[in-house]
Amino acid sequence: MKTSKMTRILAAAILVAATMLGACRTDDIIADDLSMAREAYGARNMPLAERLLERYLQDEQNPDRRWAAWELLLKSINANSQEPRASLECLEAMRVEYENDEPRLADILTQMARYNTLLRHYSNAAEAWTAYIDLADIGDNDRINGLRNLAAMQFVQRHFEAGEETLQQCLALPVPDHDKIYCMLDLADANMARERWEEVADLCQQILDSAPDREVSGIAGYMRADALEQMGQFVEALGQFEQARDSYPNPAVMDNRIQHLKKSVQDKKNN
What we know:
Blueprint: H1 3-19, H2 27-42, H3 46-59, H4 63-80, H5 84-97, H6 102-118, H7 122-133, H8 140-156, H9 160-171, H10 181-193, H11 197-208, H12 214-230, H13 234-244, H14 251-270
């Protein structure tokens, strides 16, 4: 879909939403466009479905039917093009129309973030996630997910301080620590990349104290043991590796680390 075409659709959509003027065609003809578009989509005739839905959106005024048409148009564009830019143009138009409809805007923003990430437009993806977490009506789990994704976009752009601040926002949310475990794990991983071993050990201990599930417990245990080893605390690191061994996703990796560390502990005793 060309940009000029989407611009015309957006202009028409805003005009309809703002003025709520009557359509030039009858309601039956408008409804036929949506029905025929659904049939075209079912028959995998995406260009026809797009044309019908574009025409439909110029006249339809019912909010729920407009949303259904926008969703089908986006699906048709996705099926007809391997280029995420076309989907983003559609989503940009949807974002303008639904800027005051938070549940629908939340869905639009998450999709915009995903497509921008596919295009490696990380700053645009970060902007979408920022707008998403600013929505008032999203739940705690959705806000946590949004903060984690925003931090990931900041880290990939090497904005380390900004990413850490975002994860700290997650940790400051008034929810139980267990619900914020993955934020803590992300922050520990970021600190590990920057070789802040004490912070890694402390965060991983907080995770382990928060009754995590088996896999998270294994990962946090491994990271804490690694941090302790880097700080020269070999005996404590060995004990942590052994404790986390059975819950870590790849026990063979643990066995190698345990073997290596046992040798280091023994060498230290001999010296």
